[in-house]
Write a structure and sequence with these properties.
about 80 residues; four-stranded antiparallel β-sheet; globular
């Protein structure tokens, strides 16, 4: 499984604009958004704004960093269907 992150700006309607498109084997799988100061203690952490395919309905935790987010996505996709 090959994960690739592409930096983008997302119009979230708040200060949460720093984002990453997550591609798995060339397919867009998720959009991660870095939480701004308006999120208090979670500021600087990452949230899965959208998931596609097998992680579409997944309830993702708030991630401390992008490595943790990538590990979680890979783990979700590795689980048997």
């Amino acid at each position: 499984m090959n994960l690739h992150l592409q930096p983008v700006q997302v119009a979230t309607g708040s200060d949460d604009q720093e984002s990453r498109l997550v591609f798995v084997d060339g397919l867009l799988t998720a959009i991660l958004v870095r939480l701004s100061a308006m999120h208090g203690a979670d500021a600087g952490r990452w949230h899965m704004e959208a998931g596609f395919g097998r992680i579409h309905d997944a309830t993702a935790p708030i991630f401390s960093d992008l490595d943790e987010a990538q590990t979680w996505i890979a783990d979700q996709l590795s689980e048997p269907v």
